[in-house]
Design a protein that fits this description.
Helices cover about 75% and strands about 0% of the residues. It is mainly α. Helix 1 packs antiparallel against helix 2. The longest helix is centred in the C-terminal third of the chain and has 27 residues. The N and C termini lie close together (about 5 Å).
């Protein structure tokens, strides 16, 4: 059952445990390492009692840089705003789809 808690640290621990138990299939070893790093990010944030708004800021600082580095790599270092915009829309779709699925699972009895 998904815990209902006002304690962000407890939620972050729960989600890190859940992510550890149900790892996503990655296409590359680097992707698998990134997933492990994100799980560690959640665990460290929980242990440190970091404010959620600061964690969000950290994530929003890093994601665009990684994303744009990959876009640049696929274009030989030449900026491509069109591809960047397309990928950003795909990221938005993934985030909102995941949130809807999480909401639906919570309503159906929880995530396990």
């Amino acid at each position: 059952m998904t815990p209902r808690t006002a304690d962000p640290d407890e939620w972050l621990r729960y989600v890190a445990d859940l992510a550890e138990q149900h790892r996503l299939s990655m296409l590359t070893a680097a992707g698998a390492n990134l997933q492990t790093a994100f799980i560690a990010f959640l665990r460290e944030a929980s242990a440190a009692g970091a404010p959620v708004i600061d964690l969000q800021a950290d994530l929003l600082t890093m994601l665009p840089r990684f994303h744009n580095a990959l876009i640049q790599a696929s274009h030989g270092g030449a900026a491509c705003v069109g591809c960047c915009s397309k990928q950003a829309i795909m990221l938005f779709d993934e985030i909102t789809t995941d949130m809807r699925e999480m909401r639906d699972r919570q309503r159906a009895g929880g995530m396990q």
